[in-house]
Amino acid sequence: MRPARPGNEPFPPDPQAPEAPPSRDVAPQPPRGKVQAWTELLRTPLPHLELEVFTQLHPVRVDQADGATLLRIQPGQEVKRALAPWTRRFGTTVPVFASLEAEANDLLGAPEEAARWLRERPLLCCAAPVLDDLLIAARGMTAQVPSSGITRVARELAYAAAGLVVAASQRWPAAQIPWADTKNRPTLRLVAQAIDLALAAQDHEHALAWMRWMLGRDADDTHGWRSVMGSLRQPDASKP
User: Fold this and answer.
1) Taking a C-beta distance cutoff of 8 angstroms, is the pair 11, 192 a contact?
2) DSSP states of 129-175
3) Which residues 6+ apart lie within 8 Å of 201 measured at CB?
4) 166 Cβ partners below 8 Å, 6+ apart?
5) In the 3-class helix/strand/coil scheme, how is 39-92 assigned residue by residue?
6) Which end of the chain is more exposed for a tag (fewer CB within 10 A), N or C?
7) Using an 8 Å Cβ cutoff, are 160 and 46 in contact?
8) Could you tell me if 187 and 58 are in contact, meaning their C-beta atoms sit under 8 angstroms apart?
9) Is residue 51 a contact partner of residue 60, using CB atoms and an 8 Å limit?
10) Is the separation of the CB atoms in 12 and 146 below 8 Å?
11) Rounded CA gap, 136 and 217, in Å?
């Protein structure tokens, strides 16, 4: 059984179980070509996700406050200039506080154009706000069609992006990266999306590792990871 996470709708589990007969009330599914285009869009950044590039594009700002070291991982000026036209054309709305969901209609409606933008501007493929937009859009994709292909590629993208965020902060092992700092949220949301996708796949090893990292970086436990970790450690009462 997958533990529930407070305040957020999870990614649906991978559709491995036999499908139930379709209901007459089910909404029309997107055409197959659209689903393929969504999958290709999520796959486009993967070859460009390199730690050296990510750290160059996201200089870490280090501050001291009340005896604590605070990090802010956000795009530098070079990325911000490239991001402006992307945001105008494809940017999602801003998720509410700890939510991982937002409106991504422009990405859902024009995946081929968005993928072409990324191929022509590979710098954007390693930009945290773009990866954030894509993973938010992936939730909209799976809400419309329960495609194991979309979920699998979204998970691969989220895992790779989360790995970059964790690695980029390794030089400051005791530093905090507070969710309360809104500048951190697009970057931290990459790790939160990876956790949610790992939980959906019952990949508890990765989910637990990233939840521990998040709690080590922000003691406020904004997402309720402690309760999720506790439920993972409990035996499943539904099993004989």
Assistant:
1) no
2) HHHHHHHHHHHHHHHH---HHHHHHHHHHHHHHHHHHHHHTTT-TT-
3) 13, 14, 151, 155
4) 191, 210, 213
5) HHHHHCCHHHCCHHHHHHHCCEEEEEECCEEEEEECCCHHHHHHHHHHHHHHCC
6) C
7) yes
8) yes
9) no
10) yes
11) 22
Q: Which two tokens stand for residue 108?
A: 């859902």
The tokens for 16 are 């491995």
Q: What is the pTM of this model?
A: 0.85
φ, ψ for residue 172, nearest 5 deg: -125, 70
Summarize pLDDT for 72-129 with one digit per residue, the tens.
999 999 889 999 999 999 999 999 999 999 999 999 999 999 999 999 999 999 999 9
Compute the average pLDDT of residues 190-201: 97
Q: What percent of the chain has pLDDT over 70?
A: 85
E strands present in 149-223:
none
Residue 147 pLDDT class (50, 70, 90 cuts): confident
